[in-house]
Amino acid sequence: xxxxxxxxxxxxLPLKVPLVTSMGILRRRNGALLRLETQSGWVGWGxxxxxxxxxxxxxxxxxxxxxxxxxxxxxxxxxxLEDWISFVGGWIRKFPTAMAGIETALLDLVSRSKxxxxxxxxxxxxxxSTSRAAIVCNALVTGDSVETVSASAQVAMSRGxxxxxxxxxxxxxxxxxxxxxxxxxxxxxxxSIRLDANRAYQPEDAIEAIESFARYEIEYLExxxxxxxxDQMLELRERAVIPLAADESATTEVAAARVIEAGAADVIVxxxxxxxxxxxxxxxxxxxxxxxxxxxxxxxxxxxxxVSAARExxxxxAGEGELLACGLATGDLxxxxxxxxxxxxxxxxxxxxxxxxxxxxxxxVVRGLSSSLVExxxx
Length: 379
Hints:
Layout: E1 3-21, E2 24-38, E3 43-48, H1 59-73, H2 81-88, H3 96-114, H4 118-122, E4 134-136, E5 139-141, H5 146-158, E6 163-167, H6 173-187, E7 192-196, H7 203-213, E8 218-222, H8 230-239, E9 244-246, H9 253-262, E10 267-270, H10 272-275, H11 278-290, E11 294-297, H12 304-318, E12 348-350, H13 363-375
Parallel strand pairs: 5-6, 6-7, 7-8, 8-9, 9-10, 10-11
Antiparallel strand pairs: 1-2, 2-3, 4-12
């Protein structure tokens, strides 16, 4: 298989409503899409959209690394997907989202050429995951007041979600408690609530928050501490009455391995687009399970390309064991996306039976988004 062309398109996707976290206010996602095409006409798409605050490369660096690596692939012929990944070279692993974009595009075009969903290239040979119809997802409940949380939760309930995620730590503890109490009242006792602090707390603040949150039957608290010192996370885990999840502290494959080895979390949050790609995400899941940790797959609030890659990775991971409700239902956050994702009405992200990523990008839309960004870069 020989790559005939490689194109990188910068994109900017505005959110319908700003997302308020302890790390700041997110109004848009900046990143880049990669389009690879073979001499035979097969096309594959990948995405590199680093999220601010996760210790990843800057969007401009990700785009530059993905551009350089993909350009080196043009005109080269190799026999297998593994050979392509080896050909890219170790240097790009310093840019994990760029590596994820390259790997996703390669997986997409290879699986399309074989007529298989991407998840089947990730699954254990002889155990395809195509029998799974959907990935169960959590709803991201937004709002920094009781009123806005109430409205967001009611919409999510009406769409069939039964697991709900709420950001905490951006407002004072009393306000967070009121928001959580409101959410629990609306979703009922049978639904799951998980919280994400995005490193908002110091250790003693975290204990006070955890003890206050515990009465609301919280599934887990994600990334509570303001520092990534694993000894502090381990100490907090030993004292906490709520399970703790590692996200920002376990973003890359190497970082996740440190958290797992230290026993500093009960749950590992896997973001394939941050870990270095779908294969890296799968390796993290296997390592976490061997250590007795539970796993959940989420996106970096990517476009439909990154979310589809995470969805396919989640399907492969689910085929090997328990998978908690995933944080992949983020497409509705955007004013406009690069492709449509199949959804059901019961809080699940549907798995496509189509080959590759299972989505069809409109190249004119991608080019339009990219051209508009270039034209308005000075804004």
